[in-house]
From TrEMBL:
It comes from Apophysomyces ossiformis. The keyword Nucleus does not apply. The lineage of its organism: Eukaryota, Fungi, Fungi incertae sedis, Mucoromycota, Mucoromycotina. This is GTPase IMAP member gimd1. Residues 68-222 form the AIG1-type G domain. One of its GO terms (molecular function) is GTP binding. The keyword NADP does not apply. Gene3D superfamilies: P-loop containing nucleotide triphosphate hydrolases (3.40.50.300). Keywords: GTP-binding, Nucleotide-binding.
């Protein structure tokens, strides 16, 4: 542009408009060079009527971690099968509607456990691969404990062989309305199955089912009694160094109060509760990831079992690096 140009002064470097334009352009360029800060997005809670895609083993988390082995034990009808179906994310095990055990043999299934997936969007990859085992119930109405218990014991032996990945968790399942006497009967049965070893208690988690969000007030006194008295009685009775962890949850699909016509939509409250219960269970199981239960023989001898041997000369032990008092806090 020549000095004779009538717009020379306007377009000169000293013109205020041009200075402002250059400054704005400079600020924009600097802004583009700065790293983008992640935006905080609010949690999106699912509505009870929304469809959630099925979990998949193609999840990145599934490929990065090994399976955790979990077995569920307890009385017939207390919710073992429903709990395992809830963890797997699909109906695999037949649920019981009577005191007669529907499970006549050990059943197993594997999948990716995404505990928060049904309740929060974007949580499908949060979880871990698991292999779960459903067992015949204790206290079968046809008095078949003598038939079932040796089968359960043998399965535990098989899972805890040194060549296997070990048994990470034993879920003792009870209804939240179970009496202290009933709980001790089941725990005594477990203690007999694992005798003479006592260290298996560090892999035990107590899960109380039928703790529906709509029945919080109704079942509150059961929960208080279990946490304040029964838990301490269990610790003293079996000589445990710590109280067994207790998880309270419901495996029933929640129906929104608005859909039922009884009030305003309370899906967020229900999903918060369900997600929190499963998060607690997930945390307790993950604490035991590096401390599976193994079976070994005295003096390193090979394990030998026979059909008429109810107490093989072997002991259930933990890895030598494991210390109940310091390594695991429940």
């Amino acid at each position: 542009m020549t000095p004779d140009d009538p717009f020379h002064e306007i377009e000169s470097e000293n013109d205020p408009i041009m200075i402002a334009a250059r400054l704005q352009s400079h600020r924009k360029n600097m802004s583009d060079m700065e790293p983008k800060k992640p935006q905080n997005t609010p949690i999106r809670w699912l509505h009870s009527g929304e469809h959630v895609p099925d979990p998949t083993l193609d999840s990145p988390s599934a490929a990065a971690t090994s399976e955790l082995t979990i077995i569920a034990l307890g009385k017939t009808g207390d919710g073992k099968s429903s709990l395992l179906n809830d963890m797997i994310g699909r109906q695999v095990f037949k649920q019981k509607t009577a005191v007669k055990s529907q499970t006549k043999e050990i059943q197993e299934s594997s999948g990716f456990w995404a505990p928060l997936r049904p309740y929060m969007l974007g949580k499908a990859n949060f979880g871990t691969p698991i292999r779960v085992y459903d067992t015949p119930g204790f206290g079968d109405s046809q008095l078949r404990d003598t038939e079932f218990l040796p089968i359960i014991r043998q399965k535990i032996l098989d899972l805890t062989q040194p060549t296997q990945t070990g048994l990470h968790c034993i879920l003792m399942v009870f209804k939240i309305t179970s009496s202290a006497e009933s709980i001790f009967v089941s725990l005594d049965t477990l203690n007999g199955l694992m005798s003479p070893n006592k260290e298996f208690w560090s892999n035990v988690i107590m899960v109380f089912t039928h703790a529906d969000v709509n029945s919080t007030q109704r079942y509150q006194h059961y929960k208080v009694m279990l946490k304040t008295k029964t838990s301490k009685d269990i610790q003293a009775h079996y000589g445990l160094q710590e109280e067994l962890p207790m998880i309270f949850l419901s495996t029933q699909k929640y129906i929104c109060s608005y859909i039922r016509g009884t009030g305003e939509c309370d899906c967020e409250r229900a999903n918060r509760n369900n997600a929190d219960c499963r998060r607690r269970l997930f945390e307790q199981i993950m604490k035991r990831r590096n401390h599976p239960l193994y079976w070994s023989t005295q003096h390193g001898k090979d394990i030998a079992t026979s059909e008429d041997s109810q107490a093989p000369e072997a002991n259930l032990i933990m890895p030598s690096a494991f210390s109940i008092s310091t390594d695991l806090h429940v």
